[in-house]
Amino acid sequence: MSMLNDIDHVLVSEESIKEINKKLGEQITKDYAGKKLLLVSILKGAVVFLADLMREIKIHCNIDFMVVSSYGAGTKTSGVVKIIKDLDLNLEGYDVLIVEDILDSGLTLSYIVDILKGRNPNSVRICTFLDKPERRISDIKADYCGAVVPDEFVVGYGLDYDEKYRNLPFVGVLKPEVYN
Ligand code: IMP
Ligand code: MG
Predict the structure, then answer these.
(1) Is residue 158 in contact with ligand 1, taking CB distance under 6 Å?
(2) Which structural domain, as residue segments, surrounds residue 130?
(3) Measured torsion, CA atoms of residues 107, 101, 29, 35, in degrees rounded to the nearest 10
(4) Is the CB of 103 under 6 A from ligand 1?
């Protein structure tokens, strides 16, 4: 069976994704002119977004990666965030922009923001591709957001269900029977 047969409906199309990245890139290019921009990406989900977004940014920027885990094979947050791989760079003097795939409960990001702020960067802001505000637990807001999505579990464009569907070029919702 093809991966596409598991999709119930598309939420963010390839075409919209392109437009979203163009817009975000333009805004970030303006806002960070003259600054020392560092894009910090949380693996693995944000890697697809980062790859597209950084090519829409027209000023110099560095990239660095972090691996954390907050989800297992299921669709609900565990509330536990663990750093599995830390950044390589020292953050002093950098204007850090965290590039995330989705802001859900916010537990993961609020934890990461606190850690990064403690390392004396110039600033720390958040750019998320998707925002699911209905599910927020932490008091955290994205400075840049690609699209707001309803409270449904989504896959594609980097986002997984049980490590699958990351390579879908759009964001979609799985058919209910896929979970069973
Ligand atoms: P949070 O800590 O609840 O905000 O969760 C953040 C992480 O959970 C994201 O970076 C994703 O990896 C994962 N996640 C949250 N919602 C979804 C979803 O709808 N689909 C796939 N992964 C999700
Ligand atoms: Mg995940």
Answers:
(1) no
(2) 14-150
(3) 40
(4) yes
